[in-house]
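FW: tagging you since you asked about this chain on Friday. Here's the raw sequence from the shared folder, copied in full. Didn't touch anything.
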Amino acid sequence: MSRYDEDAKYDRPRRHTRPRTKDRPSYDDAAEGFVFTRDRGRYACWVEEPDGGREVTAMKARQLGRTGVIVGDRVKLDGNATGDEGSLARIVEVLPRTTLLRRSADDDDPVERPLVANADQLVIVVAVANPEPRTGLIDRFLVAAYDAGMRPLLCLTKTDLADPDPLLSIYRPLGVESVATQQGGDLTELQEQLDDRTSVLVGHSGVGKSTLVNGIIPGAARAVGIVNEVTGRGRHTSTNTVVLRLPDGGWLIDTPGIRSFGLAHVDPDKLIGAFPDLAEIAADCPRGCTHAADAPDCALDEAVEAGRADAERVASFRRLVASRGTSS
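HL: got it, structure written out here
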């Protein structure tokens, strides 16, 4: 009988596919880690243990799809999470983030770029001289901190070269805390602000960030780009963001020098939420009010005229609003 005979019957080959199921694996017992660097698709994670901890190299599991994994993320690790040489775990879950520091390439680019997750403090390092402070960039860092839900801290360096008060007076109305340092000086006050926190250092090149890091963390100068800052092991890395363990507890995340900081993603209503006294007044603003100096019928203007809001504080807040659309 011909195989092409119309009356011929034959079994079609069956597809050997895995049956679909709604059941998903549980990772309740999976190790939890902290991502401290990324290098060509591999993530270095720190798993805390009673006797210290271990470094685990991991890759992102396929099931995460386009879910991004960034420095600071708390993740669950499946597979070989022993940290032994040559072992490789899988990141199967990114735990909810408490904060997210973001930026855009510029103010016309709506695409936001996540930088660091789960940090609670943004340390804005500014030299009072050599180089001269750039208030526009400081304002942008403050906006990014408030948008992320992070505590901003101004760290003024090189105060032996110039009086820091003129710069501090600009930010006093906003209630921003600050510490002052000088070259070769005592860093105790700064260390106290960093202890038991996860802090991100930002600032443009030349302000003295590396000097601060080397003064706070013994041996950091030898480790940058050569030895892993968490474990002390040699490691070559393509990322410029360095995570360091603080001697008395906490983490310090040092970022490369930043020349610009786009804020296209920031919503003015979220920004004013960082100032509860002004947010209460702004509740009476027209819908869609930008709270800028030229915003029509902004309730902040009426509050200043009636003496219910401090004029300097409102002006300082509006300077931050304006920084979203001006060059840094």
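FW: The mean pLDDT is 84.
HL: agreed, and The chain is about 20% helix and 25% strand.
FW: great, closing this out.
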